Amino acid sequence: MARNAWLRDHLPRLPFARRAVLRFMPGESLDEAWAAADRLLQDGHGVLFTHLGENLERLSDAELVVAHYHRLLDRAATSRRAPEISLKLTQLGLDIDPEAAFAHAEELARRASEVASFLWLDMEASAYVERTLAVYERLRQTYPRTGICLQAYLKRTAADFQRLLPLDPAIRLVKGAYDEPETVALRAKAEVDANFQTLALLMADAARDGKVRLTLGTHDSALLARIAAATRAKGISRDRIEVHMLYGIRESELRRFGRAGFPTASLISYGEAWYAWYMRRLAERPANVVFALRQLLP
Ligand SMILES: Cc1cc2nc3c(=O)[nH]c(=O)nc-3n(C[C@H](O)[C@H](O)[C@H](O)COP(=O)(O)OP(=O)(O)OC[C@H]3O[C@@H](n4cnc5c(N)ncnc54)[C@H](O)[C@@H]3O)c2cc1C
After folding, report:
1. Would residue 222 count as lying in a domain?
2. 108 assigned to some structural domain
3. Alpha-carbon distance 158 to 146, whole Å?
4. Who's near 201: CB < 8 A, 6+ residues apart?
5. How far is it, in rounded angstroms, from Cα 232 to Cα 250?
6. What pLDDT band is residue 55 in, cutting at 50, 70 and 90?
7. Considering the domain boundaries, does residue 62 fall inside one?
8. pLDDT band (50, 70, 90) for residue 298
9. Cβ 179 under 6 angstroms from ligand 1
10. Atom 41 in ligand 1: residue holding the nearest Cα
11. Residue 238 falls inside a structural domain
12. Computed over its alpha carbons, how large is the radius of gyration of the chain?
């Protein structure tokens, strides 16, 4: 459904779908996202913003995306604790002109550094992994305030982490949100969870002295608790391991990890182009489909 063009054009216009998506995003506008961010920042959490969109077809659209993030970063400059930004390279034109996409990413990395924000590269489907890593390697040469997402369901991720390690990278480890074939990815949930734990512990060792910034992007509190116990046994301080969750999902758990001493942050997605992203959120948890359908009822 995430890839269906007819649904992408029609579903977002239906009132029930618009009501349902508000569970995962505070609204379509930057002002609505900012209001949600203020509340989280006051509660002591960090905030990351994603202006939704991906796989653009015109380079001129990528320029609009860059202009939007510039407005966001200008506003971040006035914030006591600057929100960070997280974006997809296909939103900057990777499919159309990779050099232009790199130039856009570099421009935003520079501005993010100037205002003490931080630029994260989301990881998209497996066909984009190599190109996303290559862009990050180039960016990180100049901009320390940049990070990249790695996916635990991919068989290549342990090797990718070793490859990035000499750069003192910032890593967000997630399970992975795309439907990948077993040639490249682990398919069973138990296997993905086990690999997440193995990778998180490997990364936590590297984060021990602060050279690597490690964030764990998951709502799986049982898995986080196992990782917390293992890192405690290794003597790794809690403030070296950040816990990041998506806005609207398990906020009470985010607060609980914050109280336990882990730096926490919430990733707020907003914007009009929410269709493909929302389909991935539904696919992660079938109960969400029931929730969405219930919005059809008066
Ligand atoms: C900060 C952050 C950034 C991310 N960035 C990327 C990225 O760049 N690339 C990428 O491929 N993926 C990304 N993801 C998504 C990730 O790959 C997973 O698809 C997603 O986090 C669901 O897996 P989980 O780790 O929460 O574990 P799961 O085992 O799927 O879920 C654990 C529990 O969390 C709750 N939960 C999980 N998902 C939902 C949901 N949608 N609705 C309601 N409850 C839910 C449920 O209670 C579930 O039992 C990101 C996730 C986070 C938190």
Report:
1. yes
2. yes
3. 20
4. 227, 230, 231, 234
5. 24
6. confident
7. yes
8. low
9. no
10. 281
11. yes
12. 18
Q: Report the CATH number that the domain containing residue 188 is assigned in CATH.
A: 3.20.20.220
Cα-to-centroid distance, 75 and ligand 1 (Å): 28
**Residue from 283, 282, 286, 241 nearest 21 by CA:** 282
- Residue 116: alpha-carbon gap to chain centroid: 19
Report, as an integer, the average pLDDT of 222-231. 98
Of 59-63, 155-159, 255-259, minimum mean pLDDT range: 59-63
Provide the domain limits for residue 203.
26-273
CB hemisphere CA count around 169 (13 angstroms): 26
Hey, which residues does 18 pair with through a beta bridge? none
Q: Which atom in ligand 1 lies closest to the alpha carbon of residue 122?
A: 8
Token readout for 10 is 């029609």
What is the spatial distance between Cα 261 and Cα 277, in angstroms, rounded to a whole number? 31
Q: How many domains does the chain have?
A: 1
Q: Are 72 and 106 in contact (CB under 8 A)?
A: no
Residue closest by Cα to atom 49 of ligand 1: 220
